[in-house]
Amino acid sequence: MMLEIVDLAFAPLRFMARLVEHELARPLEETEHDVLDGVNAIRHATDSIEHHVEVIEGLATSVGPLTEAVHQLTATMNDLVALLAPMAAAEGGVKRAERDVERAERFFRFRHHKDPAGAEDDHAG
Description:
It is built from one helix and no strands. The chain is mainly α.
């Protein structure tokens, strides 16, 4: 019977202890959940950063060969320009010659048209 009285006396205290324990456990669960969310976000960010580092490393390793390819292309273009320069000069010479021929033809046509008229005058008189 003494135990029942002591149990009865401590029942409100046990109720309060369980209530406090439950109230303390709930924020800890929420905090634990928030911490896990933060850890997962950090893990995701780390994975993303690692992926970006891999991409940057790939770009960095391709810069050297790309630079070499550009240098080779520039050298090839310079060779083409050097090769085509005489052809361009020859084409310019051909165009000048064509213009000279056209001028000569006009000159001789003009002279040709003048001579027969003068020749007819000589024959008529």
